[in-house]
Amino acid sequence: MSDPVLDVVPEETSDQVTSLIEARELGRWYGEVVGLSDLSVVIQPGITGLVGPNGSGKSTFMKLIVGELKPSRGGVRVLGHQPFANRELYRDLGFCPQQDALYDHLSAHGFLAHLLRITGMSANESKQRAKRALGRVGLTEAMHRKCGTYSKGMRQRVRIAQAIAHDPKLVIFDEPLSGLDPIARHQIRTIFKEMVEAGSSLLVSSHVLHELQGLTDRIVLIHRGRLLAQGSVTDIRRLLSQHPRRISITSDAPVELAVELMRLPGVRATRIAENERTLTVETRDAQGLFDQLPAIATRLKAGITSLDSDDEDLEAVFDYLVD
Q: Residue 9 — pLDDT band, cuts 50, 70, 90?
């Protein structure tokens, strides 16, 4: 699938910005290693999920967005501005990196207050914002303990708190739910939704695809440094009509059912699982299979007890695209 073509846009004022992020032929390499290659994409306000396998270029893309890296080629605009070395833009950006870089000799409250002071806030406002952000992520009781005593999950919550403490317009999260227990994950997901309701926008990277699917239906898939696909899961599924859909059927007569289904137009393959009751069917005409299946099952007395399709499952869509 070819990358979308973007028009060159002038520097925009804050009142003119219609998109969060616009990248055109964006590339970044480290010597002979290509981190990102010819990426063109537009990301709109709201929550967008960034998906890709390890080494796909997700982290490089996020570092380019927040101005931590300078493009080797092409360009990127964030909130209408070029991000690299743009101190003014940094006030509107939050970044939660995957790397752990806390100051272990400081308390969580001291760490956040220090970062906020660097941005130019007063000592009093910095302390109040640090307290509020740490409270939001559930660290009120531990905020005055040194970061060096924190568990992995607590350290992750500190990184999230520092990314949102200054109420940025756009926050970039790199694997934000990693290391969190189920209760903390639910709490952070609630914070994300509250932020969007308050007017902020989020770009959330994750390899746990079902977590992104629960946050947003809008995804950007990157593979080998290039845009693989963009849109909702349903939109991407529509683009994949040439790919077979996988349908799982649990039946009392999987062998007989497999023989009959192979006669249907569009069915490419059938496989029976080790438990000998679950049949997986690959077909290019799922609707045709669904229409014919009741009659076939009745005739064979197949005893179907479950029928599942991965059509709307983000994991399956990603597997299709990468394959």
A: very low
* Cα 183 from Cα 269, distance rounded (Å): 41
Sheet of 218-223: strand order equals: 93-96, 170-174, 201-205, 47-51, 218-223, 226-232
N residues, the chain: 323
Strands (E), the chain: 21-30, 33-43, 47-51, 73-78, 93-96, 170-174, 201-205, 218-223, 226-232, 245-250, 267-272, 278-283, 306-309
* Separation between Cα atoms, residue 241 and residue 263, nearest integer Å: 20
Looking at per-residue confidence, does 173 or 229 come out higher?
173
Last residue of a domain, one of 188, 217, 238: 238
Residue pointed to by tokens 């919550």: 157
Neighbouring C-alpha atoms within 13 Å toward the C-beta of 191 = 25
Task: Calculate the CA 309 to chain-centre distance.
Answer: 22
Any idea what DSSP says for residue 146?
Answer: B
Token pair recorded at residue 66? 């927040």
Tell me the per-residue pLDDT of 50-96, one tens digit each, with 9 for 90 and over.
988 878 899 999 999 999 999 999 999 999 999 998 988 988 999 99
Residues paired with 27 in a beta bridge: 73
The answer to whether 50 and 58 have CB atoms below 8 angstroms apart is: yes
Phi-psi region of 140 (alpha: psi -120 to 50; beta: other; left: phi over 0): alpha
**In a shared domain, residues 223 and 144:** yes
The answer to whether 79 and 65 are in contact (CB under 8 A) is no
Write phi, then psi, for 266 (nearest 5 degrees).
Answer: 95, -20
Rounded to whole angstroms, the Cα distance separating 270 from 273 reads 10
Q: Could you tell me the maximum CA-CA distance found in the chain, to the nearest angstrom?
A: 77
Judge if 294 and 228 occupy the same domain: no
Number of domains in the chain: 2
The token pair at 80 is 């209408």
CB atoms within 10 A of CB 9: 15
User: Based on the domain organization, do 248 and 233 belong to the same domain?
Assistant: no
For residues 49 and 195, state if they share a domain: yes
Domain that holds residue 271: 243-322
Chain centre distance of CA 253: 40
